[in-house]
Amino acid sequence: MKIVMLGGPGAGKGTQAKQIAAKFNIPHISTGDIFRANIKNGTELGKKAKGYMDQGLLVPDELTCDLVVDRIAQDDAKDGYVLDGFPRTIPQAEALTKALNARGEALDYAIDIEVPDENIVKRMGGRRACLGCGATYHLMFNPPKKDGICDVCGKELILRDDDKPETVQKRLNVYHDQTQPLIQYYSEAGILKEVDGTKDINEVFDAIVLILEG
Ligand code: ADP
Ligand code: AMP
Predict the structure, then answer these.
(1) Quick check: is 142 in a domain?
(2) Element spanning 212, H or E
(3) What's the pTM?
(4) Is 88 known to be catalytic?
(5) I need a surface site. Which of 5, 85, 167, 200 has the fewest CB within 10 A?
């Protein structure tokens, strides 16, 4: 099963993608996590990506598309994957379609998690992320068992620089300008499914499972 997650920043793509990956036994591929790991490890890619990310801008397509095309060609992705945060622009979606076509493959679902901007702004300030394993929490809606500590790997949780309110508004603008057109793109491809992302985390997951198993 090959899935892409759509939705604004903070819509819940990562939260749901992790659960989908666990249930269907496919890898969760998050370009945001890949960039953050590169920043943490001080790689060339990380150095290039950081400036864009800190400003709430998209990392250029040239640094992003080949990375994903190579990742989905790896062995663990042969039975499918859930892409989280990619594609984010029409040229990225076209690059993905082209790479899949070349291998006689196609995506099965594009799941759009719909959340109005007002809810997103509230959600982002409460998001806490683990840079150790990529787990995500929310102070109110999905708190860790121990304050400030990751349940999965025991490392410290942080407020991402790009989750600060001034950057969140910029990321929302970038989303509306560059990423939202993908809804039309995948609707025309006949694989778009929409879920109400304002419901609680388990209800959103149940709605997604209904789609994937239906
Ligand atoms: P994205 O990957 O789309 O940027 P996340 O999955 O990281 O978003 O979710 C953003 C924040 O909102 C996180 O703190 C997460 O715990 C919380 N969250 C995710 N889904 C919901 C939901 N349905 N209701 C309330 N909070 C949620
Ligand atoms: P995320 O973790 O998905 O919220 O992504 C965090 C940041 O990483 C984004 O705001 C972008 O700066 C960058 N990023 C992640 N995925 C992409 C992508 N597909 N294209 C461009 N930039 C990306």
Answers:
(1) no
(2) helix 201-213
(3) 0.96
(4) yes
(5) 200
Residue appearing with tokens 């992320």 = 129
Residue 131 is assigned to a structural domain of this protein: no
Structural domain count, the chain: 1
In a domain, residue 82? The reply is yes
Report whether residue 136 contacts ligand 2, using a CB cutoff of 6 Å.
no
Domain containing residue 24: 2-115+179-213
Is 171 a catalytic site residue?
yes
Q: Whose CA is nearest to atom 2 of ligand 2?
A: 32
Give the integer Cα–Cα distance in Å for 63 and 20: 27
CATH number (domain holding residue 11): 3.40.50.300
| Strand ranges, E, within 52-210 | 81-84, 109-114, 127-130, 136-138, 157-158, 192-196
- Per-residue model confidence as pLDDT tens digits over 63-106: 999 999 999 999 999 999 999 999 999 999 999 999 999 999 99
pLDDT at position 184 is: 98
In a domain, 158, yes or no: no
